[in-house]
Amino acid sequence: MKRKIRKIIILIIIAVIFYFILNNIIPLNKGTELYDGIVKVNNSNEYTKEELEKEVNLVLVNKNYGLSKDYKPKELVIPDILFTSDISREEKHVDKRIVEDLENLINSARKEGIILLGNSGYRSYETQNKIYKKRVKSEGEEMAEAYVAKPGFSEHQTGLAIDITNEENFLTQGSREAIWLEENCHKFGFIIRYPYGKEDITGIAYEPWHIRYVGKEAAKYIYENNITLEEYLGL
Ligand SMILES: [Zn+2]
């Protein structure tokens, strides 16, 4: 009996070590499936690989357009910015293509006395699935659906979006940080993805902290015309 218990303990220790290695040592940027597997849920067509390589910045993810569980950005990188203390290693990653502009945004804000921190960047399908299931368990399906994107329908899976916060970890409407982001993020290719008063179009209530990379040209147009990504894409 004692032997059995010892065996079990050893197995648990091995499992914990493996889990640690998988989470911390093996880099995340091992994505093999690049842009295959992004699905337009509204119709049966998938985005073509060419379409996505050309315009991946404009990939639309909302309640109607989702990503398959295999979709993973080509290269995930941790940007050289400050993060809040309580986020996972996975969430510190973003798509490599947005790193430079994101770092420039954060540094530019700092020069104006605005301290911005990363709060949650890339989230895998599996992570979103866990978050969603947890919420369903604690609050029921209806509440979960209202506040948490279903797996495959979170923009965080693209690696092109990141939640930004301030030193108090409380970036709210009207705060200095929210105002700065709203007025400046387009200069770096980002948009406030869920603007105030556009819930009927985006399907998501105002989120001053969630910025999404679309490239400088699209970001400027979206900002100047006060529209959403859905409107920009004519959807
Ligand atoms: Zn977000």
Automatic annotation (TrEMBL):
Q: Which GO terms describe its molecular function?
A: carboxypeptidase activity
Write the record's keywords in alphabetical order, separated by commas: Carboxypeptidase, Hydrolase, Membrane, Protease, Transmembrane, Transmembrane helix
Q: Which InterPro entries match?
A: DD-CPase-like (IPR052179), VanY-like_core_dom (IPR003709), VanY/YodJ_core_dom (IPR058193), Zn_M74/Hedgehog-like (IPR009045)
Pfam families for this protein: VanY
Asked if the Swiss-Prot or TrEMBL record annotates the protein with the keyword Nucleus, the reply is no
Q: Where are the transmembrane segments?
A: 7-26
Keyword Phosphoprotein among record annotations: no
Q: Where is the D-alanyl-D-alanine carboxypeptidase-like core domain?
A: 92-216
Q: Its GO biological process terms? A: proteolysis
Q: Tell me which PANTHER family the record gives.
A: D-ALANYL-D-ALANINE CARBOXYPEPTIDASE (PTHR34385), PEPTIDOGLYCAN L-ALANYL-D-GLUTAMATE ENDOPEPTIDASE CWLK (PTHR34385:SF1)
The protein, known as: D-alanyl-D-alanine carboxypeptidase
- Source organism per entry reads Clostridium isatidis
